[in-house]
Design brief:
Elements: H1 3-19, E1 45-51, E2 56-61, H2 62-68, E3 82-89, H3 100-108, E4 111-120, H4 124-127, E5 132-138, H5 140-152, E6 164-167, E7 173-182, H6 188-199, H7 211-219
Antiparallel strand pairs: 1-2, 1-5, 2-3, 3-4, 4-7, 6-7
Signal peptide: 1-26
InterPro entries: CHP02117
Keywords: Signal
Length: 239
C-alpha cells in the first residue's frame, strides 16, 4: 500500500469528524510554552514527522533507535534503515477495507489501539514522495525523551517484547498492541503531538485532532535537515 492509499483510508474515518464539526473546535494554540533550554551538543539528531493530510507518523534513524536500547520490537525489522511509528484504532487501522461503521466506532467510542511500525530502506522523503515531511533537530536528551515515550506506547502485557498483532499495511511493517484507547480526541495525530511534546515541551498536544494541526506546530520548530542516506550495508526494504 502506498502513502497516498493510506491517506484515502484515513480520510474515510477522519472526514466524519470534520463533517460533524468536531475537529474544527480544536483550535490551534495561540500561546506556546517557552522553548526548552539549549542542550550541549543540541541539534545532533534529525527526527522526521510525516503527514498525508489525514494521518501523521514519526520516523527515527536506526542508529538513534539502537543507541537508546529501547523499542526491542525493532528487531522484527532487521534490515530497516529508518523506523516509522504511528497509532490507530485496533479495528479500523489494520482493516483491508474499513467501512463507515468501523470508522464511526473508531471516532466515537473509546476502542483499543495499535501501533504501526514500518521499516524503511531510505529516508522518508524518498520512501514516501507524496507525503508532507518535516524534519526537526533534537539534542541527545530530547531524543531520549521522545524514544522513551514511543517505547512506553507499546502494550507488552508484562513481556519483554510486544507480540505482532498482525501484518502491517505494506511489506516490512507490523501492527502491535498499544496502550490507551483511540477516539476522536485521541487520534493518530494526538498521539504524534504527545510523543513530540516529550522532546519539545513548546509543541503542545492540546487541542490536536487533525494532521494539519500537528504539522502547523512542527513547522514552527522545523530546521533544515541535512541530506540523509541509509547506513552502509542496509538492505532494501519496501515502505
Amino acid at each position: 500500500m502506498s502513502w497516498r492509499a493510506l491517506a484515502r483510508r484515513m480520510k474515510g474515518g477522519l472526514v466524519l469528524a470534520c463533517l460533524g464539526g468536531l475537529a474544527g473546535c480544536a483550535a490551534l494554540d495561540s500561546a506556546r510554552p517557552a522553548p526548552p533550554a539549549a542542550e550541549e551538543g543540541a541539534a545532533a539528531h534529525v527526527v522526521y514527522v510525516l503527514s498525508n493530510r489525514w494521518h501523521t507518523s514519526i520516523t527515527l534513524a536506526r542508529g538513534d533507535l539502537e543507541a537508546s536500547g529501547l523499542i526491542p520490537e525493532a528487531a522484527d525489522l532487521p534490515h530497516a534503515a529508518f523506523f516509522e511509528f504511528s497509532l490507530g484504532d485496533r479495528k479500523y487501522f489494520p482493516a483491508p477495507r474499513p467501512g463507515p461503521g468501523i470508522a464511526l466506532s473508531a471516532l466515537l467510542v473509546p476502542t483499543p489501539s495499535v501501533l504501526h511500525v514500518a521499516g524503511l530502506a531510505r529516508p522518508p522523503q524518498e520512501a514516501y514522495p507524496d507525503a508532507d515531511v518535516a524534519a526537526i533537530r533534537l539534542g541527545p536528551k530530547a531524543l531520549a525523551a521522545l524514544i522513551e515515550r514511543i517505547d512506553a506506547s507499546f502494550d507488552r502485557a508484562g513481556a519483554e517484547r510486544a507480540k505482532v498483532y498482525s501484518p502491517g499495511l505494506y511489506p516490512g511493517s507490523f501492527f502491535y498492541a498499544a496502550r490507551g484507547k483511540s477516539h476522536l480526541f485521541n487520534t493518530c495525530n494526538t498521539w504524534t503531538a504527545r510523543m513530540l511534546s516529550g522532546a519539545r515541551p513548546d509543541l503542545s498536544p492540546s487541542g490536536v485532532v487533525v494532521a494539519d494541526q500537528v504539522m502547523h506546530r512542527v513547522r514552527a520548530l522545523e530546521t533544515a535537515a541535512p541530506a540523509a542516506s541509509a547506513p552502509a550495508g542496509a538492505e532494501a526494504a519496501s515502505p
